[in-house]
């Protein structure tokens, strides 16, 4: 997750492609390893993260702060990851997700309340 954020900050579209789960990719692979303008990323804030299915899947909710044409933007996403051959791959995500109630069931499926499980805040 952090390495994908770093790739965004570096404009490394190739790395982002390679860490995107093959079943979930859309469009074409980047043509070259040349850096692309993916915006200016300033800060990554992790809201929570959890692993589940014996560490074979994970979820990370984050806010990434970036600047586009001098406008401050915040990308708020809850991303899903799957592990393949001991490597994490991004699958998909939900943009601007609703906040999880502290007493609701944890999204990791543990059966515990969110506040007693993956909630980090
Ligand atoms: Zn959990």
UniProtKB/TrEMBL annotation:
Residues 1-93 form the YchJ-like middle NTF2-like domain. InterPro entries: NTF2-like_dom_sf, SEC_C_motif, YchJ-like_M. It comes from the Bacteria. It holds the Pfam family YchJ_M-like. This is YchJ family metal-binding protein. It comes from Agarivorans aestuarii. The lineage of its organism: Bacteria, Pseudomonadati, Pseudomonadota, Gammaproteobacteria, Alteromonadales.
